[in-house]
Amino acid sequence: MAYRTILRTADGPVTTITLNRPDKLNAFTAEMHAELADALDAVAASGARVLVLTGAGRGFCAGQDLGQRRDGEAPDLGETLDRLYNPLIRRLRAMPLPVVAAVNGVAAGAGMSLALAADIAIAARSASFMQAFARIGLVPDSGSTWLLPRLVGPARARGLAMLGERISAEQAADWGLIWQVVDDDRLAAAVTALGTRLAAAAPLAIARIKRALDLSWENTLDGQLELERLDQSELGRSDDYREGVAAFLEKRPARFSGR
Question: Which residues face 168 on adjacent strands?
């Protein structure tokens, strides 16, 4: 597929998908969703070890492009979520490789949801986050009502969702919404270093860590202990575990194969 609204580039084991509608702050359209789905298929088939999501220009993603709605239109937004947004969020959360959101500017509405759905979000200091849904008479979607209370607790989640206030990248980091905030001119280097580090990690372990952390919200302690037991039992028989132990004993970097 030839892309018009995104860019997909690869640097060794790290693939970057850039939302590329900078004149619209990379707001979502149906075309962008289709291109993202195709790009994620390509990433899954490529053997990439890390996926980075970012935006072109001065925005990460402003959410849905409301200019795509015709005057007087009463769309079935639930159908839009079912067809476009929900599959995207499910896909990102289920990907076995680490997903990094490099938030270079405003992340609003579903754009904020997209950033929060990543495994690790790192933001430029000038970036900002906003749950803009209530301002247009909607509830947060694209997973935000699930993600927000788990990341910042119920009190801050309610404030973010009901007030729709913009918060800075520094505040987002202080609240635990994102992993790290860096100066604008350091974002690219910080993301490159993070991608390199994650690409060198054990792929099987990363995939199981993602799954275990998500399932922990549903499991009892006993259920989670059993999940950990099963994962360790399987991973302990992997080539990666043997390599990791050997590298530790030999005081050298590990070379994980994903087997």
Answer: 128
Q: Does the pTM of the predicted model rise above 0.90?
A: yes
Distance between CA atoms of 211 and 232, rounded to whole angstroms? 13
Do 96 and 127 share a structural domain?
Answer: yes
Q: Which two tokens stand for residue 67?
A: 């200019």
Q: Which two tokens stand for residue 116?
A: 């929060």
Please report which residue ranges of 97-252 form alpha helices under DSSP H: 110-117, 144-152, 154-163, 169-175, 187-199, 203-215, 221-235, 239-250
| Both tokens assigned to 138 | 């909607």
Query: Is position 23 within any domain?
Result: yes
Q: Is residue 215 part of a domain?
A: yes
Say which DSSP state 163 is in.
H
Strand partners, 181: 123
Residue-range definition of the domain harbouring residue 233: 203-250
pLDDT digit string, tens, across residues 91-139: 999 999 999 999 999 999 999 999 999 999 999 999 999 999 999 999 9
- Which run of H or of E encompasses 40? helix 30-46
116 plus 234 within the same structural domain = no
Indicate which CATH number applies to the domain containing 148.
3.90.226.10
How many domains is the chain partitioned into structurally? 2
